[in-house]
Amino acid sequence: MDRFEELADGFKALADPTRLKIVALLNIRDCCICELVPLFGISQPAVSRHMSRLKQAGLVTETRRGQWVFYSLNRARLADFTLGVGALPDLSADLQKLESQGLLVQCTIKTS
Amino acid sequence: MDRFEELADGFKALADPTRLKIVALLNIRDCCICELVPLFGISQPAVSRHMSRLKQAGLVTETRRGQWVFYSLNRARLADFTLGVGALPDLSADLQKLESQGLLVQCTIKTS
DNA sequence: TAATGATATAACTATATGGTTATCGATCCG
DNA sequence: CGGATCGATAACCATATAGTTATATCATTA
After folding, report:
1. Is residue A62 part of a domain?
2. Coil, helix or strand for B54?
3. Looking at chain A, which runs of residues are DSSP E strands?
4. How many distinct structural domains can be found in chain A?
5. How far apart are CA A77 and CA B64, in angstroms?
6. Which of A2, B11, B30, B61 has the fewest Cβ atoms surrounding its Cβ within 10 A?
7. Which structural domain, as residue segments, surrounds residue A41?
8. pLDDT for B47-106, tens place per residue?
């Protein structure tokens, strides 16, 4: 696969509004699938597959903590496509809404 | 359409290796369709539609000169998606190959 | 061990995408 | 005007994508 195909694949991973929102959210805080589901109007498997796509593009990494899998933004990789994270709208309000609804996971388990 | 959809549309325009090559080429020199066709293994209508996609995303502008339509890179717009043009491989060699084959248009008509 | 909860995967559907060939429109030139 | 060239559009086809529901996998906990 030549460089253009590699780059195109990366852009494909970013070429979806839901995945861009995921990136914007992970820029604020590591999240697990169950936190993201109520934010988007889509099913858990749909969120999971979006995350797989981001993972395959190297844009996120995962860490299992107990029964949850937390996803982190790979900012260095994101920079490869030089999407300035600052260019994304701030979604703090959405997270705050989740928190006010008690939907944020309070994970006390240490990273394995 | 919210900001995320707008951004996603822009990334979609960049999420194709042929279009990335077109961007890389336009970064070197304005081109018309007939110059690009022999560079890619695809038909003239296919190149034309790729260009439409880039045009719709605001990434290129067109200028008719006689029977040719020259396309220019909108670098400011490209910066919106902050793809550093420098991140793209240099395709000068391809253009030189075209030139050596006499396939570059020598347009003497002034911009209308 | 059994039940529960979080993710991932499978199978399916509808739409989007990227290619083709055929054809239309516009411009230039004899 | 008539022919030739460049580009755009139309119609079609194959594949990719993003969603769904159902189910499997893995970890926690009673």
Report:
1. yes
2. helix
3. 31-32, 60-65, 68-73
4. 1
5. 39
6. A2
7. 3-100
8. 999 999 999 999 999 999 999 999 999 988 888 776 443 444 555 555 565 566 666 667
Higher pLDDT residue, A44 or A36? A44
DSSP A59: S
Q: How far from the centroid of its chain's Cα atoms is residue B107's Cα?
A: 18
Measure B83 CA to nearest chain A CA, in Å: 6
Q: Name the nucleotide nearest B35; use CA and C1'.
A: D6
Chain D positions with an atom below 7 A of a protein C-beta are 5-11, 17-23, 26-28
Chain A residue with CA closest to B3: the answer is A89
Residue A11 half-sphere exposure, CB side, CA atoms within 13 Å? 25
CATH code, domain carrying B86: 1.10.10.10
Sign of the Cα torsion B17, B19, B24, B29 reads: positive
CA distance A92 to B112: 50
